[in-house]
Specification:
The structure holds two protein chains of two kinds. By secondary structure, chain A is mainly alpha-helical. Chain A has twelve helices and no strands. Chain B has seven helices and ten strands. The chains are: A mainly alpha, B alpha/beta.
Chain lengths: 336, 222
């Protein structure tokens, strides 16, 4: 096992998160079974009081999860030189079979947590605990995911061995391999560009349309998730090539390295934020019919959509800039 | 306007010194009425008053204000509700020493963001209606008992609340000042305010200004 401050911080944060969520989930289970706002029983009033503390704890844990995802990837990149064959985070994550699953679950937890935080924010705006039961039901679904994440991350850290010869990003994101990364890398740039600009273009238009037709917000949430997938495909397929100015270097993780000016953070930060808020904006819309939230949902959904839209817009502009200022001529070479 | 359903309140629950101050009180208080909660010391009247005014939460039972449950509300909503619905006159008046009477009166309105000239106008009008205008710039600690009480009433009224809660308002007043207080009660009633007071002073609960007397003993309704 490799021990460094980031690994210790991640291990402690994940362990603490799991313990707090296990406690919160136990409370959530009791709440989901016994919650009855029409009752004035001691149990009900106790639950109402406790929900404030527990929700604050869970919000703190989920906020930690977002930071944890960032630190996990950053650390995987930083410790790559310790492993033979590793050039970036991919090499580190490849040292054991738990690396990529841990990352994948962390991403899932990020989106589940962000949706929960948006619903929690909305719930606190209603005077009569309008979403409390739903919120804790969702918590019961997310908590096991966090425990799985803690398990995978712990196994990954424990399996880190500097004697292991690992494979670099070229093997995972080479266009001629049989893996998801290779499939994406093998995507023709024109198709990837059409997909990226097309999906994000539609997302931006639908996002703007929500101002006039709020019901379009559901489509916007769906398109946000689709934009996330299209953007990841685009990053692997052509954005990375323009940044590295190399026609065969498809790694989406090397973008995070200092050699490339940490440009990946400017791609992934807005992308994750835009997607999370886009999904969140759709998640709050059904509750506009709840009397205590009817005045709160429309402005909140509008605010979430606006921030999400600006992040997606920034992403498109930033990809255009990266493409325009790159020395690589990708499309012109195809005909030669 | 205010409804209590099987309200119970315990202090130090689960400890050796557990005390049930209110035991299953159910009652309904109508708007624009003057009500006195009467009972001996330790009967639970002050606790009940704090539960009605959202200064404390019941251990069980529900408190509803205009049909909306307030017993489980979070502080985010309770603070605003307390500020805009209730005016409190405490037994010891609780004026802030070192501040002038005018500043004390304006204090509860500061969080509402009312402009200072408007606030001063309001404070001046209230102090004038309670014959305290000449003492507006006097420090709170310089006031006599009756003046301090009237300053406390002015402070309770600065946000124009619908409900005035007063805890033992005549406990520290002599007979003349108690009658003066009843004049103020009559005036507030005329203005459509709902008054809820605790007292074991016959001068107060037998006064014609009082519409309803609710007896309490050992945390129960009499």
């Amino acid at each position: 096992m490799v021990v460094n401050p980031a690994i210790v911080a991640l291990a402690i944060a994940t362990l603490a998160s799991s313990l707090l969520l296990a406690y919160s989930a136990a409370f959530g289970w009791r709440l989901v079974r016994t919650w009855d706002l029409s009752s004035g029983s001691e149990l009900q009033l106790g639950l109402e009081r406790h929900t404030y503390l527990i929700s604050t704890l869970v919000a703190f844990v989920f906020a930690t999860e977002a930071i944890s995802l960032l630190l996990f990837v950053y650390n995987a990149d930083r410790i790559a030189p310790l492993f033979v064959g590793a050039m970036c985070a991919v090499g580190t994550l490849n040292t054991s079979p738990f690396g990529f699953p841990a990352l994948l679950v962390k991403v899932l937890v990020f989106f589940a947590a962000s949706t929960w935080l948006v619903l929690h924010h909305l719930d606190t705006r209603g005077y009569d605990y309008p979403l409390t039961r739903l919120k804790y039901g969702l918590l019961l679904a997310v908590a096991p995911l966090v425990v799985v994440e803690a398990y995978l991350q712990t196994r990954f850290f424990l399996a880190l061995d500097t004697d292991v010869i690992t494979s670099c990003c070229g093997s995972l994101f080479g266009a001629n391999r049989e893996a998801l990364g290779s499939e994406l890398a093998g995507l023709p740039p024109v198709l990837a560009m059409t997909l990226f600009y097309g999906v994000l273009g539609v997302t931006l238009v639908v996002g703007l349309a929500t101002r006039r037709w709020p019901a379009a917000g559901y489509a916007y949430a769906l398109l946000s998730a689709l934009s996330f997938a299209a953007s990841l495909a685009a990053i692997v397929s052509f954005v990375s090539l323009y940044v590295y100015e190399h026609p065969h270097h498809h790694c989406p993780f090397c973008l995070l390295k200092s050699e490339y000016g940490y440009q990946g953070y400017l791609l992934y930060g807005p992308l994750f934020l835009a997607t999370a808020l886009g999904i969140g904006s759709g998640a709050v819309r059904p509750f506009a019919r709840v009397p205590s939230l009817s005045d709160v949902v429309p402005p909140l959904a509008r605010r979430l959509t606006n921030v999400s839209l600006s992040m997606f817009f920034f992403l498109v502009v930033w990809v255009c800039i990266l493409t325009a200022r790159s020395g690589l001529v990708l499309l012109g070479n195809e005909g030669v | 306007m205010i409804e209590l359903v099987d309200v119970r309140k315990a202090f130090n629950q689960g400890q050796h010194n557990e005390l049930w101050a209110v035991r299953g009180v159910t009652l309904r208080l109508e708007a624009n009425c003057t009500t006195v909660l009467r009972g001996p010391s330790g009967s639970g009247k002050t606790t009940l008053l704090t539960l009605i005014g959202c200064l404390a939460r019941p251990t069980s039972g529900r408190v509803r204000l205009r049909g909306r449950d307030v017993s489980g509300m979070t502080e985010r909503f309770l603070t605003g509700l307390r500020r805009q619905t209730f005016g409190f006159v405490f037994q010891q008046f609780n004026l802030v020493r070192g501040l002038t009477v005018e500043e004390n009166v304006m204090l509860p309105a500061y969080p509402l963001g009312v402009s200072r000239p408007e606030l001063r106008r309001r404070a001046h009008n209230l102090l004038e209606s309670l014959d305290l205008a000449p003492h507006a710039q006097a420090r709170a600690e310089w006031l006599s008992g009756g003046q301090a009480q009237r300053a406390a009433i002015a402070r309770a009224l600065v946000n124009d609340p619908a409900v005035i809660l007063a805890d033992e308002p005549t406990a520290n007043l002599d007979t003349d000042l108690s009658h003066r207080f009843l004049d103020i009660v009559r005036d507030l009633k005329r203005k459509g305010k709902t008054l809820i007071m605790t007292s074991h002073d016959p001068l107060l609960y037998q006064a014609p200004e009082v519409d309803r007397v609710i007896g309490l003993r050992d945390g129960h309704l009499d």
